[in-house]
Write a structure and sequence with these properties.
The protein is an all-alpha fold. It has one domain. The chain is built from six helices and no strands. α1 packs across α3 and α4 packs antiparallel against α5. It is elongated and about 50 Å long.
Length: 140
């Protein structure tokens, strides 16, 4: 394994983690989950097939889960689970955007986050040494 992998893994993990941590922080503590649900989910998809209760549930829970996943990714604990969750989140948000605009351009933040996510999932096993997961696995 290239000796730079642990550093590269750390940097990429922190960039992706901060993106989700700050998005979640803003949605939870500035916008509020209720306003996020109302503005971006319930009002945004009122004319589509998705039931209002599901829109409200997603809109309320996604900010808190983004915040938690971003924090987990930054500190490097249960990273695989957090990455899996944000992968599913990217699928949900991409579907939502594509439902509203079938020619939705994912070249903005969606593709960037996806590329960082895929990089982390494909990085060599054991390369995430500067993480809580790495520290815990070294103790075994």
């Amino acid at each position: 394994m290239n000796s730079n992998w642990p550093i590269v893994h750390f940097i990429v993990r922190w960039i992706l983690g901060v993106l989700f941590l700050m998005a979640g922080y803003w949605k939870v503590f500035v916008l509020t989950p209720a306003e996020h649900a109302s503005q971006y989910f319930v009002a945004g998809f009122a004319d589509y097939w998705i039931p209002e209760w599901l829109l409200y549930a997603l809109g309320m829970s996604i900010p808190v889960l983004e915040l938690a996943a971003g924090l987990l990714i930054c500190i490097g604990w249960r990273v695989r689970e957090a990455l899996t969750f944000i992968g599913l989140l990217l699928i949900v948000t991409t579907y939502g955007h594509a439902l509203q605009d079938p020619l939705f351009d994912i070249s903005g933040h969606t593709f960037t986050r996806l590329a960082l996510l895929v990089f982390l999932l494909l990085a060599p096993a054991g390369s995430d040494k500067y993480s809580l997961d790495g520290w815990l696995s070294g103790r075994k």
